[in-house]
Design brief:
The chain is built from 14 helices and 24 strands. It is α/β, with parallel strands linked by helices and 512 residues long.
Length: 512
């Protein structure tokens, strides 16, 4: 797999650097007045200065698409008071390596205190504390002379607040969607029994244009991508409302559950770590919706859809509870066959998440045919950012057995990549293709609609191809040539074309 130029230069420097290179010890001071001491994961970002480029507003990193010019270091901080300073050893827990051995040059550097321990899941969230960028000279064993400050609190993201780059059509449609949406929140008895504390089921219900309370509408449960939560779901609400207004989707009641959990996204799968979220969905959420809104209670008119993590969850719920739902339209689902989990056969003898049987590096993400991340770097970045909320750890919180320490048992050794065969065997119960079996029930098969881009950015077409190989599944699976994870819904020049297709199919199944 081709390396980034930044990583290649780093490795060369690491190989040649003296073992006594000066450590990079970065002081960080809390300059925000707080009512009580604050704790969290303290992350320091460093980004190589581009002399020809603009000064960035902030520095961030995403594990499956790490910038080639960015490095991170981190540590946990407990009970930091206003005016106090702590030091981050940027040569200890760091990616892609020790800051002292970075390619020498000028860098933008910024600190972030992740008070919610969820940066790996959501990025910067309300209550986190950050500060201004500093321009410093790093590398070649140099020391860090400046003190970074934490002087501003990240504001809480409110529902119906969109990014600056949001499409104008979404901004224009948001008012109508807001008027037709209702937030819900109710306590879950089954999840409370599991955790010993109150756990709320939260989300949104979207009513169709021309809503008539005397009608009985079909219901669509729409499951979001990995970072979907109550505030972020309002983008999805607006898009679906706009499509119904335009007649692209038939008038139905749409439900958008928030399924963020401590470990990441719980996938609506019953788990010894996250709790019985699948049962809570079927036994609590559905009866709550059907008790509060005029929807048809027959299974044929309960539908599921979702993309990415939501693609996995929607498919899982349809297969796990086949008599509860009338159909699932799952796009770009997370790995649904663990013979091909991030390009690794988890069941193979001696399986390794970082290396193939021939010793080749295992890729994790690609863009336009070029590898942009490998599994080892994804794991190492998540390790620096913290031990909860990342995509890999999220899978473990959903699928792994619970360890003696109360945490999920890792699927693989983060140092070597060696897959634990006992954990892999436990994961089989969440392997959707394995659950369907070698001869899937025809009544279940006809309710599945799985769509993936042939060039999926995260290689998710591989597991879907294995699904298509099962008897009777080929007509239910669409592998779209020329499409990837992010542009899958585009058909020709129509950016929403796949929604039109899905809308027609849903209308044909549930009736209008």
């Amino acid at each position: 797999m081709p390396m980034s130029r930044f990583t290649l230069v780093l490795l060369c420097l690491v190989a040649s650097a003296s073992a006594t290179a000066t450590a990079t010890d970065i002081p960080v001071r809390l300059d925000v007045a707080t009512t009580h001491p604050v704790s969290g994961r303290l992350i320091v970002f460093a980004q190589r200065v581009d002399p020809a480029g603009p000064r960035p507003d902030s520095i961030d990193i995403e594990s499956f698409a790490p910038p080639a010019d960015t490095a991170i270091a981190a540590r946990d901080v407990d009970d930091l008071d206003h005016g106090e300073s702590v030091r981050v050893d940027a040569d200890d827990v760091a990616w892609p390596g020790a800051f002292a051995r970075l390619p020498e040059g000028d860098y933008w550097v910024q600190a972030l205190l992740d008070t919610n321990h969820d940066y790996a899941h959501f990025g910067r969230t309300g209550g986190d504390i950050t500060g201004p960028l500093r321009k410093v000279h790093l590398g070649a064993g140099g020391t860090f002379a400046d003190t970074l400050v934490l002087d501003r609190v990240v504001p809480t993201l409110e529902p119906w607040t969109f990014d600056h780059g949001t499409l104008p059509m979404i901004l224009d449609a948001a008012g109508h969607a807001k008027a037709h949406s209702h937030a819900y929140a109710f306590p879950s008895p089954s999840l409370e029994a599991f955790s010993g504390r109150q756990v709320m089921q939260r989300g949104w219900v979207l009513l169709p244009p021309g809503y008539d309370p005397k009608k009985r509408y079909a219901t669509v449960y729409s499951l979001a991508t990995f970072s979907g939560n109550v505030p972020r779901l309002t983008f999805d609400l607006t898009l679906i409302d706009m499509l119904m207004v335009q007649g692209i989707l038939p008038p139905m009641v749409w439900v958008f559950p928030d399924y963020a959990a401590r470990g990441g996204t719980h996938e609506f799968a019953d788990s010894v770590n996250n709790g019985p979220w699948g049962e809570a969905f079927v036994r609590e959420l559905i009866p709550w919706v059907e008790g509060h809104y005029p929807v048809d209670r027959t299974p044929a008119r309960r539908l599921l859809t979702g993309h990415s993590s939501g693609g996995w969850a929607s498919l899982w719920l349809q297969v796990r509870y086949p008599d509860t739902f009338g159909g699932a339209w799952s796009t770009g689902p997370d790995p649904i066959d663990f013979h091909d989990f991030l390009n690794t056969d988890l069941y193979a003898k001696g399986a390794n998440a970082y290396r193939g049987a021939d010793g080749s590096v295992t890729p994790a993400a690609r863009r336009k045919g070029k590898v942009v991340a490998n599994v080892e770097d994804v794991a190492r970045i998540e390790h620096v950012l913290g031990d909860t909320g990342g995509q890999l750890s999220s899978f473990e919180w959903s699928f792994s057995p619970r360890g003696d320490d109360g945490r999920p048992v890792p699927l693989f050794d983060r140092r070597t990549g060696a897959v634990d065969p006992t954990v892999a065997a436990y994961w089989r119960r969440y392997d959707i293709v394995a659950l369907l079996g070698p001869h899937p029930d025809a009544a279940v098969v006809k309710r599945l609609h799985v769509i993936v881009g042939a060039e999926d950015n995260y290689y998710l077409d591989g597991p879907v191809r294995r699904l298509a190989a099962l008897p009777g599944l080929s007509p239910q699976v669409r592998i779209v040539e020329g499409r990837n994870h992010n542009d899958l819904h585009q058909v020709g020049e129509d950016r929403l074309g796949l929604f039109r297709t899905i809308g027609k199919e849903m209308g044909g199944v549930a009736g209008r």
